[in-house]
Design goal:
Family: Belongs to the purine/pyrimidine phosphoribosyltransferase family.
Pathway: Purine metabolism; IMP biosynthesis via salvage pathway; IMP from hypoxanthine: step 1/1
Strand content: 25-35%
GO molecular function: guanine phosphoribosyltransferase activity; hypoxanthine phosphoribosyltransferase activity; magnesium ion binding; nucleotide binding
Number of helices: 3
Helix content: 10-25%
Protein name: Hypoxanthine phosphoribosyltransferase
Strand order of the largest sheet: 4-3-2-5-6-7
Shape: globular
Radius of gyration: 15 Å
Pfam family, one: Pribosyltran
């Protein structure tokens, strides 16, 4: 793998702590469900939910399929693992690794809104605008990028590189 370091493990930890404070303030005293989008967001979700000052926050998981083993969204999104909790009347914080084309996230936001969530907001580790085709609001962004294929800290290429502690731009495989 040839890659360029973009965000070190220390950069990520500092930004996640800041995001935890922002989110804690935004949802003070409100019912909150944090939803992890598997698999990519699992490291970020774990760190972020521990940084949010809430003992009563519900945690749940979804899995969407749109990329397969490629690097370009198929635009057809499927929910392959659904929530176990009821979001009706609750604030929902979707925790996503990277917002790229926007298709997967738009699909999920529509599903959650359709299920009666009181509000749905997004916390994304990386808000990447290069291939954005569908506008989606990112309320809490860890880092912003214009371009590049990124791996590490949960982000993968064909299921590889997820366990790297930092985020890299993948230059060649």
């Amino acid at each position: 793998m040839t890659a360029k370091l973009l965000f070190s493990a220390e950069d990520i930890a500092a930004r996640v702590a800041e995001m935890g404070e922002e989110i804690s303030a935004a949802y003070a005293g409100e019912p909150l469900v944090a939803v992890c989008v598997l698999k990519g967001a699992v490291h970020f979700f774990s760190d972020l939910t521990r940084a949010i000052s809430r003992e009563d926050m519900e945690l749940d998981f979804v899995r969407l399929a749109s990329y397969g083993l490629g690097t370009v969204s198929s635009r057809e999104v499927k929910l392959t693992k659904d929530l176990e909790c009821d979001v009706r009347g609750k604030h929902v914080l979707v925790v996503e690794d990277v917002v790229d084309s926007g298709h997967s996230l738009r699909f999920l936001l529509d599903v959650l809104t359709g299920r009666g969530a009181r509000s749905v907001r997004v916390a994304a580790l990386v808000n990447k605008t290069e291939r954005r085709e569908v506008e989606v609001p990112v309320a809490f962004a860890g880092f912003s990028l214009d371009s590049g294929f990124i791996v590490g800290y949960g982000l993968d290429h064909a299921e590889r590189y997820r366990s790297l502690p930092s985020i890299y731009e993948l230059l060649s495989v």
